[in-house]
């Protein structure tokens, strides 16, 4: 986080990482999401990021979330399903927190 970043930057970066993990794990576990989670990431970028360096950091976090699971899971396992449910819950909590605390 940099001094000129908004106060909710840490939460949004974590959300980007979660979106990347969901983009990999949901289809792996049979969800017909297609590009839903990548599209959600694009919507986050469109709404929140105008600076090129900041955009790069968001994309890096998305990719980190994706690669973290793609390097470990080749098929859906109970552990992958547990991670999915936890990420959906955590992502929802992050969104609620940011929109409640920092809504313009």
Outline of this structure?
This protein has helices at residues 9-28, 36-48, 52-70, 78-102.
Question: What would your notes on this structure say?
Answer:
The protein is mainly α. 74% of the residues lie in helices and 0% in strands. It is built from 4 helices and no strands. The protein has helices at 9-28, 36-48, 52-70, 78-102. α1 packs antiparallel against α2 (36-48) and α1 (9-28) runs parallel beside α3. The longest helix is centred in the C-terminal third of the chain and has 25 residues, at 78-102.
Instruction: Point out poorly predicted stretches.
Output: none
Kindly state the mean pLDDT as a whole number? 93
What is the N-to-C succession of helices and strands? HHHH
**Helix content bin:** over 70%
Task: Report the sheet-strand fraction.
Answer: under 5%
Structural class: mainly alpha
Largest sheet: none
Strand runs, count: 0
How many DSSP H or I helices? 4
Instruction: Kindly provide the radius of gyration, computed on alpha-carbon positions and rounded to a whole number of angstroms.
Output: 14 Å
What's the overall geometry?
globular
Distance between the termini: 21 Å
